[in-house]
Design goal:
Blueprint: H1 2-27, E1 32-42, E2 47-49, E3 58-68, H2 72-79, E4 85-88, H3 98-125, E5 135-145, E6 156-160, E7 163-164, H4 169-181, E8 187-192, E9 195-200, E10 208-216, E11 225-227, H5 238-249, E12 259-262, E13 265-266, E14 272-273, H6 278-287, E15 292-296, H7 300-307, E16 317-321, H8 324-333
Parallel strand pairs: 3-12, 12-15, 15-16
Antiparallel strand pairs: 1-3, 1-4, 2-11, 5-6, 5-10, 6-7, 6-8, 8-9, 13-14
Length: 334
Amino acid sequence: MKYFFKKFWILIAFAILINIPLIVLGTVRTNKTVTLKGGTSIVGDFVEVENAYKAEGSLSTIYVISLDHSTILQNLMVQASSTSEVSELPKHYLHFTDMEIMKMGRIQHESSIQYSLMLAYEAAAAKNSTINLDYEYDAYVIAYYDAVSEFRIGDRIIGVDGIYAKNDFTAFKMAFNEAVASEENHIFQVSREKEELEIQNSKDNLRIAGYSYYILDQANAFPKYKIKPTNVGGPSGGLLQTLALYNSLLPEDITKGKKIAGTGTIEPDGTVGPIGGIQQKIYTAYEDRMEIFLCPEENYEEALLAYNKLRSKERMKLYSVRTFNEALEVLANA
């Protein structure tokens, strides 16, 4: 019996010695971010167009898994992987809470959907005049603020010096641009959680970034569409969202039966912008057997590093694009 209890306590001590370090490594968070391979999402999962033309192939966005303030254990595990990445969290993001980062991602995604709808409908209307989507400017929504700024994630700048966007967008835009660039005193009218407040344009307060939000006339759009809920955040699906929407509005199928994926932000003028996690997105698209990958020009060199590591890279062609129209040209000739 004494031998049994002695062995029992040895096992308990051994378990404690092993588990305590693992608990510490798995709970202590760092100022690093981990980026892992994610998956592909067919763009039809985001927006559904009434009587949409069907594609023989598919258009998919690529998402990655990002863990900000990752634990020591997560960092160690990722360092042992050839397809994942651990990096320092930018110092200017350290003041954000997890909830604010999630809110930031939602704002980016919502604006991206808006821009995609506006651009796709406008481009399709150039070929079919019955297609229409009217919209008007709503507010400039804050998606980043510096630690010393009075702004917060989700703040909506609705006016400047008493000039409101809903009353006169042109005058508001001029006043907004002047207030951002000027050292003179200007006052922003801000809507924050149904409360209106005023913030002055000091040097510290203007350390912000955001997105223009629009009110889309969904009720009178033709054809009608429905935005579907999703857990995906961020703006990186903008280019593929726009391509898929455009393809659903017109009879000509730009997929030509191929599995097309890619990444890149989109602006209302069609500019394709850079994104993060490009190497993990290349690996993800390849594993999901995509045939074409569209990449923002600014991410191309980094994407090429991952692409050249693929065993049978000829199975998936990589293209860099600068604009929505350039992406259409690539697909037309691919």
